[in-house]
Amino acid sequence: MTPENKLKNKKIGFGITASFCTALEILEPLQNLKDLGADIYPVVSDNVNNHSSRFHDRDAYIRKISEICGRDIISTIAGAETFGPDIKMDIMIVAPATGNTIAKLANGISDGAVTMASKATLRNGKPLLLALFSNDALGINGTNIMKLYNTKNIYFVPFGQDNPVKKPTSMTADLSLLIESAVYAIEGKQVQPAIIVH
């Protein structure tokens, strides 16, 4: 059995937060998960659910996410809370995981659908996989990232500086490693190396 086959029939929560420049890039790994037979529950933040950007049209984007996953998005705290007692995920993936989302998770704040779904999954002792996209990863958010990196059941898609000259504090995940990272996380392992050079 190949590692990817380990995702077949797995219940996967997939949280999408508002790194708008990354919005369309997320669709490929989302489709890859579906093609591998995963049962995906899409969860979006308020900003994703309520705003278009210069990179995407909100309505078309939400429709595409639902089409890939084969179910409606979850966009409320009440909907995401069911990940705890009722619809138990095998893993929760947040991609992109913005600096704002990272800061909230590191400080126990679950004031939106994505952070609530993450908290509910962790409550069940299941892994949370984060695909970091943050302009302040090597700035004020650095301590939050390291706090989460050293927290039980939280894993990262390998990430690195995406433009060290023009954006010296920015770091982004390598989305081509999301599937492999998910397989490792379900097995309770952090894929290595966790910090990469883009």
Q: Give the CATH architecture.
A: 3-Layer(aba) Sandwich
- The general outline is globular
CATH homologous group name? Flavin prenyltransferase-like
Distance between the termini: 30 Å
Determine the oligomeric state from the structure.
single chain
Number of helices: 8
Briefly say what this structure is.
The protein has one domain: 3-Layer(aba) Sandwich (Rossmann fold), CATH 3.40.50.1950. The protein is 34% helix and 18% strand. Strands 1, 2, 3, 4, 5, 6 and 7 form a 7-stranded mixed β-sheet that branches.
Question: What are the key terms here?
Answer:
about 200 residues, globular, 8 helices
Describe this structure in words.
- The protein is of the alpha/beta class and 198 residues long.
- The chain has a single domain (3-186), classed as Rossmann fold.
- Helices cover 34% and strands 18% of the residues.
- The protein is built from 8 helices and 7 strands; from the N terminus they run βαβαααβααβαβββα.
- The chain has helices spanning 27-35, 46-50, 58-69, 77-81, 99-106, 113-123, 142-149, 178-186, and strands spanning 11-16, 39-44, 91-98, 128-134, 154-156, 159-161, 171-173.
- Strands 1, 2, 3, 4, 5, 6 and 7 form a 7-stranded mixed sheet that branches.
- Helix 1 (27-35) runs parallel beside helix 3 (58-69) and helix 5 (99-106) packs across helix 7.
- The chain is globular.
- It starts with 10 loop residues before the first strand and ends in a 12-residue tail after the last helix.
